[in-house]
Amino acid sequence: MTAEPTARPTPSRAGHHAGVEAERVDAGYLDKRRLRTGTAGWLLLAGLGVSAVISGDYAGWNFGLAEGGFGGLLIATVLMAVMYTAMVFGLAELGSALPTAGGGYTFARRALGPWGGYATGVAVLIEYAIAPAAIATFIGAYVESLGLFGITDGWWVYLAVYALFIGIHLMGVGEALKAMFAVTVVAVAGLVVFLVGAVPQFDAGNLLDITPTDAAGASSFLPYGLLGIWAAFPFAIWFFLAVESVPLAAEEARDPARSMPRGIVAAMGVLVLLAVLMLVFTPGAAGSAAIAGSGNPPVDALAGAGVSDGLTRVVNYAGLFGLVASFFSIIYAYSRQTFALSRAGYLPRALSVTNARKAPVLALLVPGAIGFALSLTGQGAMLLNMAVFGATVSYVLMMVSHIVLRRREPSLPRPYRTPGGTATTGVALVLAAAAVVATFLVDTTAALWTLAAYVVFLAWFALYSRHHLVASAPEEEFELLAEAEDDVR
Prior knowledge:
Oligomer: single chain
Shape: globular
Radius of gyration: 22 Å
Strand order of the largest sheet: 1-2-3
Helix content: 55-70%
Number of strands: 3
Strand content: under 5%
Largest sheet: 3 strands, mixed
Order of helices and strands: EEHHHHHHHHHHHHHHHHHEH
């Protein structure tokens, strides 16, 4: 076994990098931290985007009915669809221009410097580390409700799914993405089966069956008033949460400059269509009041509408596949974000070492262990809001990064350009900022706990890791190249 290469400090860079020290490492450092390249084409990337989100079509979004009613959730979903679509166009540009495993962290690192890059990467990591814990609790509930294996205690399920799917990821990215794609196909097919049963039962009157309150602006369409629209934002986000994970696969993609934009835009198109269909036909079959508190909305909608038990059970099993698909793909996302931050020295460097199959072992295991511990709380709804807080903070920073890079580096090679340019990402920025505030409206305690964790991560950077960055990491190399170009000019 060879010894870890010795890092040789170099002087800190000037300007907005003052106070940050990067170290040179020899080639052996990066040799131990390589991913398998050229594995995923645009179709697998699109599958990654859909699979990361598909569980949100089966559960979670419906709690927004209890915050805004059908009208409030509908308006919130339209606004969040606009936000995500605009953001996806911006990320498609950034991912094609800066294709590394860091995703949003890479983009912010180039635009906002080490502090901005780290702040973005940590927000993304918080989202992806917590979201699987929430999904694990839903998987446990599904397994228990189906009576599978006679299991009645959820923590066994949480442990089993973490161990099984982390194990598959350790086998290599090619095997993981193909398995993920197959599970996603089954989950999407389950939604189609649901719609076959729900569409004939649709009654427009069911959408507006929540009794209006005395809130300002309340009506049958907006039973919780105008503020209910804002409060429904975090639940509307669940229709799209984690589609932004696609750029994290950039280093493992084939021809990322072309496949990345095609994959993420295609995924967003599928997700918008599914969001509209589920939002309209689920409460339309059984009533918004009945679906608002459901833990399994498609199944409860079919049962409430009197659809056959056989069809309902098929959808129930498909829902389990949907949850597994998102759980599986977000594990991939948190491992790549952890890998990139670790490789560049922002997190402990041991987390980015890869095995013989080029899978980052500790980047899979450590956040997985933390997620498993969080899943034991059984607080799926609270964990969801915590994940949404991390996500929306990262969206704000990523959209700022797009705008800054467009203004500051107009000549940066961009194989794909965002339609509408900074006006498009400016819309996403405003809506993302509103969504951050909305997380406090829904669950102030969850948002504050997440903010506290975020502050701890920032303190780690301030006190330690900003003095131990790795200049040879791809994200840092991008910055050195940019500085060299500035010097030439």
